[in-house]
Specification:
12 helices; mainly alpha; single chain; globular
Length: 260
């Protein structure tokens, strides 16, 4: 029965991913925790789940030339070493997963809140995409690569600790720093960065013993076909209906994991 439950969970989250474009981490990790999995197992398993589910999207966007590989590479230059370093710190300075559970819990709550705020402000960010103003706008225009690299480091640490944010927060970073990119290029570039980041972070958690392979396989069996179905259904459902609902739900979960 557990196997069927996990396949169904994978299908449910996969359908929502296809329907709304919201990344699996912000949905799957809290769901696995509610199922009773320890935080470290939920986060580690979900990171590899995200890498596998997003890989197909990268192939499609690469074929259609929707990826700015230079920008993706700058993000990865910061995030991948940061992810590896984070895994090293968890391994070297904590005797077992229970010793760093509070760190994972706080990171998960913070990233869920940030993700929900990004979703709620997505329309505003896109409206302001071609209008950077003030000193901050000038700074971002003058040093986009340096800021991208630093933001990659931040994402590398937080995504490794929470499994959340590689998609939604990565997209927000690209919207702010690169207003000349088309929306489809932002999606493709963000995916091209998210896959290696979640893969490296997930493999790091596997090294720590934080990945349940049976659970991972069950989730993938359910989610991969469901993403395809959800993507087709999403074309018939207004984005303005689903994303605010999901954002409010993630905000509530973020508050729950951060403060309770």
């Amino acid at each position: 029965m557990d196997l069927i439950t996990y396949i169904f969970a994978g299908a449910s989250v996969g359908f929502i991913i296809g329907l709304t474009g919201v990344g699996g981490g912000s949905l799957m990790t809290p769901l696995l925790i509610l199922f009773g999995f320890p935080y470290h197992t939920a986060i580690g398993t979900d990171l590899l789940y995200a890498a596998f589910t997003k890989a197909g999207g990268v192939a499609v966007h690469a074929k259609k030339k929707h990826i700015n590989w230079k920008i993706s590479g700058v993000l990865a230059a910061g995030s991948l070493p940061a992810a590896i370093f984070t895994i090293f710190v968890l391994k070297a300075y904590f005797p077992d997963p229970s010793a760093y559970e509070h760190l994972l819990t706080s990171s998960l709550g913070i990233m869920l809140i940030l993700t929900s705020l990004v979703l709620l402000s997505n329309k505003y960010l896109r409206a302001k995409q071609d209008k950077p103003k003030g000193r901050m706008g000038a700074f971002l225009n003058d040093y986009p690569s340096s800021v991208t690299f630093v933001m990659g480091i931040v994402l590398g640490v937080l995504v490794t600790l929470s499994s959340v944010g590689a998609g939604a927060i990565g997209t927000a970073i690209l919207l702010i720093l690169y207003p000349y990119l088309r929306s489809i290029e932002i999606v493709g570039t963000d995916l091209a960065h998210a896959v290696p980041l979640t893969l490296v972070a997930g493999l790091g958690h596997f090294f720590l013993g934080n990945v349940d392979l049976m659970l991972l396989g069950s989730l993938l069996i359910g989610s991969l076909p469901a993403i395809y179905v959800g993507a087709h259904a999403g074309s018939k459902l207004p984005e303005k209906i689903m994303q605010p609902i999901l954002a409010i739900m993630l905000l509530g979960l973020g508050i729950r994991f951060s403060f309770f």
